[in-house]
Amino acid sequence: MSTLFDAAPGFDTPIAVLKHCHDRIRKQLATLDKLVNYLPDRGVDESVQQAAKAVLKYFIKAAPLHHQDEEVDLLPALRATVSGADAELLNELSKTIMQHHAQMDQQWKILQVQLEALEDGSGYDLSPSDVDDFTTLYQAHMQIEETQIAPMALRVLSEAQMKQLGASMQARRGIT
What we know:
By secondary structure, this protein is an all-alpha fold.
């Protein structure tokens, strides 16, 4: 049976869950880009308010959980497992990931104010450069995770470590 939407992977495949989160992030980034292009010609209308609300909801609730999945569970599990060249690479990538998270948090605070104003109709602008900076950083960040971190995790983490990672991610979201 084919469905209209791809089902989210289960927490028994935590790396697939992280990739699914990235796909959702990409959708929200695309919405931001659409908003930037829509606003100058059409202004704030109900569709803008709904789009702003959806982006706010995702980046306020889901994105921080995703970052915690990486910082609290995935990276420590990898650190505890890898050695040699993998350990050296992970050390560098971890620094970059943590820097990206801090930068994204700062950039998000700026965008959040703009989006909240769009959502409640008190503002009419969304900075193209702020959106571009946020999108560019997130895309670079996801590229590192998908091409370096995820393959390493799939290669080195045991079934028990994957199970623990998935259980932690599930618990973080309050899912039983």
